[in-house]
């Protein structure tokens, strides 16, 4: 059995057409499958469309979360409910082509645990977004001991072994593509050209991208804390050098002229480094605080999934 997880947030314009295309593509190629639609607190008519689709097609199930918990947590909820031996993660905006699914299944049957879709071309994405994404992945691979493939998203197929391993990772700040790479199971890419959205506009704003980037860095690297430590040593060395130079200029060169510019520069520089270090520590402390509360990762408002089946 194959489970396909679609996280949904305000996708009313193109959701129905995309799900029907997806269903038509896989119905004759998969003997047994389920499509899990995870509504992540949509404020439009997405839930109404989801319920209608689940009525029309017995293979379509839905999970309605109590509010918007975020894309990665919505996918995690789907993983908890998925029953398939293989699980496919993909977006519901039409950018991930359903036509690639049979090839992904054939590839994973060659003995892999994860097959991730690697984009060789991106439609409808700005130059800035492409460049920042590339720079982010290169930075993340540099500062961590895991390797996350460049030009990949969450579109991938994983087997039950990987799903069970992900369920053992309880952190609140989810970064699934990084978590899957961290597991270290046998992985391989399959290339494709990513299309533009079939309707509407992207809900993944730069603010959300920055938040995801922070979650990725703080989840897999202590580099920001190390940077703060190194900056402290550098500032201390610079301060010591200024003290030595000041004493030398006053007592040896006799050319010392007291003034506020050097004093202000030193204060602003050291103050900035201190705030940077405190901010980095604060990011980690906030994440520790979120996890020690032991609140549930998400709450389900309603669902037609039989969890006992």
Task: Provide a short characterization of the protein structure.
The chain is an alpha/beta fold and 309 residues long.
Q: What do these coordinates show?
A:
This protein has 309 residues and is α/β, with parallel strands linked by helices. The protein has one domain (2-221, 294-303): Spore Coat Polysaccharide Biosynthesis Protein SpsA, Chain A, CATH 3.90.550. The protein is 50% helix and 17% strand. It has 10 helices and 8 strands. It has helices at 15-26, 46-56, 71-81, 101-108, 127-143, 160-167, 176-183, 206-220, 223-253, 260-292; strands spanning 2-8, 33-39, 60-65, 86-89, 114-122, 152-159, 187-194, 300-303. An 8-stranded mixed beta sheet has the order 7-5-6-4-1-2-3-8, sandwiched between helices. Helix 9 (223-253) packs antiparallel against helix 10 (260-292). The mean pLDDT is 83.
**Rg, please?**
25 Å
Low-confidence stretches: none
Mean pLDDT: 83
Task: Supply the number of structural domains.
Answer: 1
In CATH, the architecture is: Alpha-Beta Complex
Please bin the fraction of helical residues.
Answer: 40-55%
Considering the chains and any ligands shown, give keywords for the structure.
309 residues; alpha/beta; Spore Coat Polysaccharide Biosynthesis Protein SpsA, Chain A; 8-stranded mixed beta sheet; 8 strands; 50% helix; elongated
Walk me through the topology.
Elements: E1 2-8, H1 15-26, E2 33-39, H2 46-56, E3 60-65, H3 71-81, E4 86-89, H4 101-108, E5 114-122, H5 127-143, E6 152-159, H6 160-167, H7 176-183, E7 187-194, H8 206-220, H9 223-253, H10 260-292, E8 300-303
Parallel strand pairs: 1-2, 1-4, 2-3, 5-7
Antiparallel strand pairs: 3-8, 4-6, 5-6
């Amino acid at each position: 059995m194959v489970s396909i997880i679609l996280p949904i947030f305000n996708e009313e314009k193109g959701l129905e057409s995309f799900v029907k295309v997806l269903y038509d593509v896989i119905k004759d190629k998969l003997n047994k499958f389920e499509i899990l639609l995870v509504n992540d607190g949509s404020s439009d008519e997405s839930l109404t469309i989801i319920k209608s689709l689940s009525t029309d097609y017995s293979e379509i199930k839905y999970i309605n979360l109590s509010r918007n918990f975020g894309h990665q947590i919505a996918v995690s909820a789907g993983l908890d409910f998925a029953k398939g031996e293989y699980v496919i993660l993909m977006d519901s905006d039409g950018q991930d082509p359903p036509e690639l699914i049979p090839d992904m299944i054939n590839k994973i049957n060659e003995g892999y645990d994860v097959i991730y879709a690697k984009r060789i071309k991106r439609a409808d994405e700005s130059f800035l977004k492409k460049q920042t994404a590339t720079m982010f992945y290169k930075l993340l691979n540099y500062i961590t001991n895991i390797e996350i493939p460049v030009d990949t998203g969450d579109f991938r197929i994983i087997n039950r072994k990987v799903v069970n391993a992900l369920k053992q990772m309880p952190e609140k700040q989810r970064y699934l593509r990084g978590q899957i790479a961290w597991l270290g199971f046998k992985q391989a890419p399959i290339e494709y050209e990513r299309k533009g959205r079939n309707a509407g506009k992207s809900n993944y704003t730069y603010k959300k991208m920055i938040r995801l980037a922070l979650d990725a860095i703080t989840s897999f690297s202590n580099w920001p804390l190390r940077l703060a430590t190194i900056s402290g040593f550098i500032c201390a060395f610079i301060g010591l050098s200024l003290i030595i130079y000041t004493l030398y200029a006053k007592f040896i060169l006799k050319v010392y002229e007291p003034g506020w510019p050097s004093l202000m520069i030193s204060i602003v520089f050291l103050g900035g480094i201190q705030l940077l270090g405190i901010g980095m520590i604060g990011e980690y402390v906030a994440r520790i605080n979120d996890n020690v509360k032991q609140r549930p990762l998400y709450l389900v408002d309603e669902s037609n999934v039989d969890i006992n089946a």
